Amino acid sequence: MNKLDYSYFELPSAFYSKVRPLKFKGASTLLFNEKLARKLDISEDFIPGLLDSTSEVFDEITSPFSQAYAGHQFGHFTMLGDGRAIVLGEVVVDKRFDLQLKGSGPTPYSRRGDGRATLKAMTREYIISEAMEALHIPTSRSLGVFSTGERIFRTGSEPGAVLARVMKSHIRVGTFEYARYFLTNEALQALLNYTIERLYPSCKLASNPALEFIKTVAETQFELVTHWMRVGFIHGVMNTDNTAISGESFDYGPCAFMNQYDPNAVFSSIDKQGRYSFGNQGAIIQWNLVRLTEALLPLIDPSEEQALIIARSFIQGFEEEWNMKYQEMMTQKIGFSKADNETERLVTGLLKLMEQHGSDYTNTFAALCYAIPNSLSPWEQEAFMEWKNEWNSYANSKGITMEERLQTMRMNNPVVIPRNHLVESILSEVELWENDTSGSTRFHEAMSLWTNPYAYDESRIAWMNPPTAEENQAHQTYCGT
C-alpha cells in the first residue's frame, strides 16, 4: 500500500495525541473486506502485522493518533476523545480516507477504560456498516475484524477483537465544540479551514465561509438522516460527538432497524426518555446543527451580537428544510417523484394505519413493490385496501403509471434488512468461529442478502420474517455494543 499520510497534523497538537495500538499475541484476521481493500490498496496482512506482538514489520511506517473532541451526550456537554480508537493514518486514493482501529487499546482519552472491544461488538459493526453501504446510505466502512487472541470482560468473559474502519473523516460536531469551548478562536479557525479544505472546498469561495460551511453540513446531515428514516434505521445515540461532519453514519453501537412501525421506537437500553427514538431523529439532527452553529459563532461575525442575529435567522430555516427533505423521501417510498399536499396526506395516512395495525415497516413498503406472501403483507386488510384505492386515484390523476411507481419504489424500499434478531442470532455463534469463518454458512448467506437488499425472490422470504414478541423484547443495545 502507499505510505500513510497525516494531514491532520496540520492542526494544533491539542486536537490529537499520538498513541500506538497494543500488540497482541496471536493476532489474526477473522473477517476481511477484500473488495474495499483492493480499492484502498491495503493487503490482508497489514493490520495483523501491526497488531501481532511477534512482528515488527510495520512499527516504523505509521504515526498513529487519537482525536480529542467534546460533545453533548443525551443533551449534556462534556469533554471526550477517542477512548478506544486510533487513527493509523490517511489513505489517499482519489480521495482521502482515515484508516482507524477500534478496540486496539487505551488512549489518553480512555477515562479508566481498557480501550478494548469484544468480537461480538466489532462483528456487529462490520455487518451493519456493510449493510448500510448496500442500502446506499453514506457510512463508515469496515475493512476487517481481527482477533486479538485474548479474553476481555464485559458482562462476562468474551473474545477480544479489533475493527479496522475507514471514513472520509472522523471530524465531528463535537470536534468544533471542543475547539470553541476548550481552545482558542485561532484553533477554531484552523479546524474550520482544515475541514473545508478536506471535505467541502467549495465553501472557500463564499463571502462567509463559516456560514456556507454550516449550510453545506446541514444539507449532508438532512440527506443522511432521511436515508435512515427511509429504511427504518435507528442510530440510537445521536450525540454531537457521533455526528460526523462528512455526513457518514458511524459508531454502530446501540443501533437497530425498526420492525413494526412505531415512531417512538428506541433500541438503546439507556435512552429511557426516547430522546433518540426513530421519529425524533429529524429534530435531533437539527438540535445538533444548532450546536455546530453556536460553536462557530466567532467565525460567523467578529461581533457576537451580529453573529447571533445572523445565526438565528439562519437556523430558523432548518425545520422547513428538514420537512421538505423528509417529505421528498417518503413520497419516493410510495412511488412518486414530486411531493405535494396530496402525497403528504397519503404518507401521513399510511403511517397512521401502520402504527394502528402494528405493521412491519420494511415489509409494508416491500409489498407495494412485489407480490410477497400475505402473511408478511397488510395489504389484504380493508383499511389498507382503501388507502391503496386513494393511492391509485392520485396516480391516475397525475398520469403516473404503475410501472413508473414500481421503478421508483424498488429503488427506495429494501426487501431485506439486517433485522436485529437475525443479527443477534448470528453473533451468538461468533465464539465458535475461532480464527475461521469459512464454516459459518449462515453468516455468509446473511451477508450475501444484506449486501443486495433491493432484490426479491422467494428464497428471501425466510429472512423477511419479523421477530417474535419474545425476540423483539430481548433485543437491547448500549453504547459499548
Keywords:
481 residues, alpha+beta, 5-stranded antiparallel sheet, 3-stranded antiparallel sheet, 10 strands, 44% helix
Could you explain the architecture of this structure?
By secondary structure, the protein is an alpha+beta fold. The protein has a domain of 161 residues. The strands form 3 sheets. The protein has a 5-stranded antiparallel β-sheet with strand order 2-7-8-6-5. Strand 5 and strand 6 form a beta hairpin. The chain starts with 15 loop residues before the first strand and ends in a 7-residue tail after the last helix. The model has no long low-confidence stretch (mean pLDDT 93).
Q: Can you write the helix and strand succession as a string?
A: EEHHEEEEHEEHHHEEHHHHHHHHHHHHH
Sheet with most strands: strand arrangement:
2-7-8-6-5
Structural class: alpha+beta
Mean pLDDT: 93
Number of strands: 10
**Helicity, as a percent range:** 40-55%
List the uncertain runs: none
The N- to C-terminal Cα distance equals 31 Å
Question: Compute the gyration radius: what is it?
Answer: 23 Å
Instruction: Tell me about the largest β-sheet.
Output: 5 strands, antiparallel
Beta-strand percentage range: 5-15%
> How many helix segments?
19
The global form is globular
In terms of quaternary structure, what is this?
A: single chain
Short structural summary:
By secondary structure, the chain is an alpha+beta fold. It contains 19 helices and ten strands.
What layout of secondary structure does this protein have?
Elements: E1 16-18, E2 28-32, H1 34-40, H2 46-51, E3 65-73, E4 76-81, E5 85-93, E6 95-102, H3 119-134, E7 141-153, E8 157-167, H4 173-182, H5 185-199, H6 209-231, E9 233-234, E10 256-257, H7 281-295, H8 297-300, H9 304-315, H10 318-333, H11 341-357, H12 361-369, H13 382-398, H14 402-412, H15 420-427, H16 430-433, H17 441-450, H18 461-464, H19 469-474
Antiparallel strand pairs: 1-3, 2-7, 3-4, 5-6, 6-8, 7-8, 9-10
Helix pairs in contact: 4-5, 4-7, 6-7, 6-10, 11-13
